[in-house]
Batch of 2 targets.
Target 1
Amino acid sequence: MVDKKSPLPMYYQIEEDLKQRIANQEYKTSDMIPSERELSEAFKVSRMTVRQAITNLVNEGVLYREKGRGTFVAEEKIEQPLQGLTSFTEDMKARGMEASSRLLTFEVMRAPSDISRKLEIGEEAAVYKIQRIRYADQKPMAVETNFLSVDMFPDLSEETVLGSLYSYVEKMKKQTIGKAHQMIEATTADQSLADLLDIPVDSAILSIERHSSLSDGTPFEVVKSSYRADRYKFISDIYRT
Ligand code: 16G
C-alpha cells in the first residue's frame, strides 16, 4: 500500500509495492499484473502515477509490456559475478540450469587482422570461427563467436564445441586456463541477432569481448558474445582502497 504522507514519491512506493508482491510470488513470472485503471483505483492515485511506476519497472526489466495484451512479470535476471573465469556450461550448472548450444558456424578461415594480433599468431594464420547460440534450460541467452588457433587445437571438432570448450581445453588438451581480459558494452539487437535470441529488434544487448590466455600467458581464444540484457546482469564487489 502507499502512504500519502510519506516523503517518498508515490510512483516509487508503487514500484516497491509491486516488487514486494513479485518477491512474495503473489505475482509470478509471466503473470499479467492488474491494468493501470485497476491499480490506480487500488492505490487511489492517478493513472499517470501508476504509468510512471510501471514504466520504471519495465525499464528495470522487472516487468514487460505486450502490445494490446497487458503488462507481465519478467523472469528474474541471471546474476553473473564478474570475478572468476568461468565457462557458460559451468555458470549454468552452478545455477541448476542445463546448458546447451546450437552450432551456427564451424569453419576454418584465415585470421582477420585483429584476431591474429590478439591471438599472437601469424598474420592470416588459420583459425576456427565458431558461432553458437547458448541456451539455459532451452531458452536462448547469448550468441557467441569464438576464434581459436587451428595450430593450437588441430583436433577441435563440431561435436566438441556442442559441449564445453573450456572442458575440452582443460580435460582433453590438459592445458590450464589462466586469465582473461573482458570488455562489456551496451548495444542493441539487429534483425538477425533478434531472431537468434528470440527477442524484439532493437532490444538491449550486453556485448562482451573476452581475450583468454593459458596459465603460461599464451592467448588461446578471442570471444565476441551478445548476451540478452533482459536476462543478464553483471555484478561485482568493489573495494575502496
Ligand atoms: C562464456 C564466455 C566465453 C567462453 C565460454 C566457454 C562470457 C561472457 N563468455 O560464455 O568467452 O568461450 O564461456 O563456454 O562469459 P563453454 O566451456 O561452455 O563452451
Target 2
Amino acid sequence: MGCTVVVDGFFGDAGKGKIVSYLSLKDDAEICARAGVGPNAGHTVVMNNTTYKLRMIPCGFINPKTRLFIGPGVAVNPEILLKEIAEHNVERRVGIDPQCAIIENRHLEIDRSGHLSSIIQTTGSGTGPCNADRALRIAKMAREFPELKRFIIDVPGEVNRALDEKKNVIVEATQGTYISLYHGTYPFVTSKDVCASAACSDVGIGPTRVDDVVIVFKSYVTRVGAGDLPGELSPDEVKRRGWDEYGTVTGRLRRASPFNFDLAKRAVMLNGATQIALTKLDVLYPSCKGITEFEKLCREAKEFIQKIEEELKLKVSLIGTGPSLEEIIDRRKAYL
Ligand code: IMP
Ligand code: MG
C-alpha cells in the first residue's frame, strides 16, 4: 500500500471518514495524516454500533496503533482539537505541526457575518478568514500556543521517515474536488485547493512519494451551501428518494442530484486517481445493505458499478454498503 491519498471527487461528504478508517485498520497504517482546510470538515465514523464525529483528528484514530498527525497546511481550532483528543483518548498518538495556522475568535466572527455567511454560506468555522490571515502573514502558528506544546511534532519529517521505512501512510484530504479554491465552482468554494496534490503539500510529501490516490464518490451527489449543482433535485424529491442528509458541522439539509459522470471524470483527472471508492450504494439499492461480497449485489447495482468503471476507466475497488466500517466490499486483492 505505501502512501495512499484519499480525496473526495464531488462536493464533500462522500464518506471519506469511513474509507480512511477502514484503510487504517485493514492496512495497519503507521500514520494517518490529516490534510485539507480545517474544522470546517465533519467526518462520521461508525464501528460496532458506535458513531464517532470528528472535525480535527484524522479518521485513522479507529486503529489504536495508528499515529494521528495534522499537517502544516491545516488550520487548527485548539478548542475543538483538545476536546476531540480528550474525548477519543488519543493523547499519546496525536501530533500537530508547529506551522499549523490557528483559528482565533475573530476568524469565527468574520466567517459568521457579511458575504461569507450570506452569499457563500460557509460553515462558519473560521477557516477562510484564518487562511486569509495566513496569506497576509499575520496568522498565529501552533508553535506559539503553550497548550499545544506537548503535541507539536515535525509532521513532514515523520511522514517521510515512515515512508522511507516502507510503512503504510494514509493522507486524509477533506472537503471535495468541486469546492476547491482552484478547481471548484468559484466563488462558492472553500478557502484552499483540496485536491490530491494539495493534500500532499499540506502534510509535506512530494508527488513522487504517492502510490495510490483513492477517489471517493457517493452513489449520488450532495452539496451544502450555495453554488451550482447540475441536475439538482427538489428537496421533496430528495426526501422521497431517501437521499436526505444533514451536515455534520452545520446541520443543514444537503442538496442532492444523481451521480454525475461528467463531474466524476474531471475529478479523476484533477486528482490523478488510481482507484475508486464508491459509498452509500445501499441508499440507491436497499437490497445491498450490509453486503460484503460483490457477487451478492443485485443486478442493477452491479450494472451501475460497471458503468462507472467503463466511463471513468478506473476500478471501483471499495464499495460501501452501509454506514458501519464492517459494511464494505473490498475488491482490491482481486486487482493485484
Ligand atoms: P468554508 O469551507 O466553511 O469556507 O465554506 C465554503 C463552502 O464549502 C460552503 O459551501 C460550505 O458548505 C462548503 N464546505 C466546507 N467544508 C465542507 C465539508 O467538509 N463538506 C461539505 N461542504 C463543505
Ligand atoms: Mg463531511
